[in-house]
């Protein structure tokens, strides 16, 4: 892997802003994956994957929603310049505006590993739906694909418990 990568985070944030893209993969090697993410104002799902994650808030503040082992939801506020460690398999939902940016470093997915994206009813917190993806290349943006599948399916967005329909973003 020569030459060694050197990343200008300010230039990367500018590129994402100008292109309106949400993610720029910085590298994707056998045991390491790093990317800069621009906030998704509509994010509502909880992501579950088999890798630990390190998040550094480059610009702005993130409200990191996560589910405890008993299923209850909690929020960790990550201010600009701060870092967070998220253990593998903890359902988490990084929520931050499109003018905020985070650097995420984790292990590249191993062959056959499945990323899961889960939604819960915003009215009663009942489980709504899960999307699953085997992510061979993170540049394929599995989050956007999961959202498209979920929001294109009104049945998936309808709560079986209270009947609430989660609105499209």
UniProtKB/TrEMBL annotation:
CDD domains: cupin_HAO. Gene3D superfamilies: Jelly Rolls. Its cofactor is Fe(2+). The keyword Oxidoreductase applies. Transmembrane segments: none annotated. Catalyzes the oxidative ring opening of 3-hydroxyanthranilate to 2-amino-3-carboxymuconate semialdehyde, which spontaneously cyclizes to quinolinate. This is 3-hydroxybutyryl-CoA dehydratase. It comes from Bradyrhizobium diversitatis.
